[in-house]
Amino acid sequence: MAYSVSHNSFSTIPLFVGFLVVASSLAHVLSSPLMSDSGNRQMKNRTFKPAKDIQKLRRINAYLKKINKPAMKTIQSPDGDIIDCVLSHLQPAFDHPELRGQKPSDPPARPKRHNSTDANPENLQLWTGSGESCPEGTVPIRRTTEKDVLRASSVRRYRRTRRRHIRRDSTGSGHEHAVVFVNGDQYYGAKASLNVWAPRVTNEYEFSLSQIWIISGSFGNDLNTIEAGWQVSPELYGDIYPRFFTYWTTDAYRATGCYNLLCSGFVQTTNKIAIGAAISPISSYNGRQFDIDIMVWKDPKHGHWWLEFGSGLLVGYWPAFLFSHLRSHANMIQFGGEIVNTRSSGFHTSTQMGSGHFAEEGFGKAAYFRNLQTVDWDNNLLPLTNLHLLADHSDCYDIRQGRNNVWGNYFYYGGPGRNVRCP
């Protein structure tokens, strides 16, 4: 739910869309500028490999044909996105052999002590600002373009673009966190309100996100996760807007899972929210603050993991069969921020987490999560107990927790990245 907590004017998202020249012909592709391993854009001479490049373009086009379904209606978003209204039974999820020919599952019972309503949601995304909407019986899907895939260099990298990064020790992985987590029990879901910002990201191979993790298994190759929140990812989306996203894996990000609807898996049920679309409005420093409410929980009847966004809006679900350990329950819940630090210039990145300010600055300046809750075996929403705090590099990004009667369990987190204490 978008939640305004001050009466000052707020700034809109900076209008910046990364412009990438992408070939519409093979000759143009062969002469395109490349990104070096260091992340700095450089022009490089490239050996002509027509057969290899033609094969790559064929793979990309085959993927686009598979993932972009026929639209009943198309909506142009102010940020440049194209939103396709796709018949529900034609969405990518139903390409999965386990789902082919099926209908979406019935809505689950909400957790007890859950106070949301099924009221019409606020305008939480840019594409809905014009008043356009997708018809009943369809789902809005952000169209994937050739530019999107070429930015990531391959179809495989584009769909996943994440690496094994949730380990408590992320030294050397490039992924850094400032999080609160609970473990040591059986968990059946989680809920929180996430403060939304537009942190600066240094280069297209880095990202900044804030999310909820539902985790089960070990931190080896059997790791299962469900993830939802907001992220800024130039590589994935081609711009610097904060976007509502989902992710899942059942083998520690190795071969299974993907972002949003970029593979068969998540079943979308709403016609009001486009996963991967830009969030609006956002928070401003010393100005108005805006939240989104996110809840993920396990349907007691069918075992699917459902996602709710905003004021009681059911977005859809991850079918139980996708997972191994999460078919039963989660053994860890995590809330907070994550960035990627490529050290592209030889020192720590200046990619921001949260608002780009440290936790000590507090309300209106630092980003926060509030009303942290988990779901127990009997489908009850409960406040967190036995919280653990982790900041991989506290001189770069830190975290501070608190509790009161209005926000329940909450924390401030984030930071600027590179500074005098974070070289």
Automatic annotation (TrEMBL):
Residues 94-139 are annotated as: Disordered. The lineage of its organism: Eukaryota, Viridiplantae, Streptophyta, Embryophyta, Tracheophyta. Residues 169-423 form the Neprosin PEP catalytic domain. It holds the Pfam family Neprosin. This is Neprosin PEP catalytic domain-containing protein. Residues 117-131 have a biased composition (Polar residues). InterPro entries: Glutamic_endopeptidase, Neprosin, Neprosin_propep.
